[in-house]
Amino acid sequence: MKLWQKTKHLDKEIEKFTVGQDYILDKELVYYDCIASKAHAAMLRKIGILSEAETADLLRGLDKIVDLDKQGKFTIALEEEDCHTAIENFLIEEIGEAGKKIHTGRSRNDQVLTALRLYSKEKLLKCLEMLRETIGYIEDFIKTFGEIPMPGYTHTRKAMPSSVGLWANAFKAAFDDDLDLLQAAIKLVDQNPLGTGAGYGIPLPLDREMTTKELGFARIQDNPIYAQNSRGKFESFVLSVLGQVMLDINKLASDLVLFTLPSIAYFILPDEFLTGSSIMPQKKNPDVLELLRGKYHEIFAYEVQMKNTSVNLISGYHRDIQLTKEAVIRGFTTVLDSIHVTGLIFRNLKVIEENCEVAMTEELYAAEKAYKLVRQGVPFREAYRQIGKQYEKSKVLYYE
């Protein structure tokens, strides 16, 4: 039975359309809704809505759901719409009348928000952990290969002297900034919406300080209307931050596609990281890098979807917002997988020192030659022209 159902039954085709993918996506939220429900039950006991026995029954029932969920045995039927309904239905069947009281003092609106906040906070913390781990792999890579010289590029042409360490450290610095962005996203979502109801509060003396502490939120989200308005806003910021992580991974993957090219071969990945062709027996393809490069666009699309879905709506909840859930859940899955694979790449990436040294051709030092003249008192523009003349008849074109 649906949480909102009274006497009439919804048309089956309308039901299928309005439920969408929620009953599938919500498998990711079962644990978080149970955690929030346990805190809510304890709070209802404190304010006298539940008896001690009822509270104990509810906590036992919720723990059973968590165990079943871990085993992959807790199911959500399409007819139940989402995990919140499935959980309440299970509690009613399992423990009887006490199960009918768990929804006291909340709406599905703040219930969904709370589960999503807990989910997002945990996934952001996981992104932080994995990104720090990846930074450690980059540092190890620099210790091993950092002193090896290699060309620096502009306009996809060799430009100036660089090194493996300078190149790799650029991504360490980028990921260091991403850590700050992830912390900012955690700070934003670390607000407790439980108790705001459908957006206009609950006419009961709820102890929101208690549930905030129980759930580990940093603070209460006070204004109930803003709690609803922030859905879409918070998620779009989270996806924007995840997009920044993927932007850096995209650039890393683009570099490695070039630098592992057999005709350049500064770096090499193990054969176990490369795929083949169904027609060309000789091919070793960097599919893993190309997919990493492409995953940025997936996250960017989710961010655009999130923002476009949540604008032009008046204050309060609208069913359109249901369509944003998939972007968040799939976005986190993509980014966590991508960070993991990026770490694997740095753990297994090798540098072909000989190829790097051979590539350090004479023209890379043109700017250095110009500055040598500058140190002798020649104006820079004159020094620039003098050195430039040495390359005018070169068969290879070099650009500023």
Please list the strands of the largest sheet in the order they lie side by side: 1-2
Put simply, the count of helices is: 14
Q: How many domains comprise the coordinates?
A: 3
Based on DSSP secondary structure assignment, what is the total number of beta strands? 6
Q: Taking all residues together, what is the mean pLDDT?
A: 93
List keywords for this structure.
two-stranded parallel sheet; Fumarase C, Chain B, domain 1; 5% strand; 61% helix; Fumarase C, Chain A, domain 2; mainly alpha; two-stranded antiparallel sheet; elongated; 6 strands; 3 domains; 400 residues
Kindly summarize this structure in a few lines.
This protein has 400 residues and is mostly helical.
Secondary structure layout:
Elements: H1 12-19, H2 22-25, H3 30-46, H4 52-70, H5 83-95, H6 108-145, E1 149-154, E2 157-163, H7 164-189, E3 191-192, H8 208-215, E4 219-220, H9 224-259, E5 267-268, H10 287-310, H11 325-348, E6 350-351, H12 353-358, H13 366-375, H14 380-389
Parallel strand pairs: 3-4
Antiparallel strand pairs: 1-2, 5-6
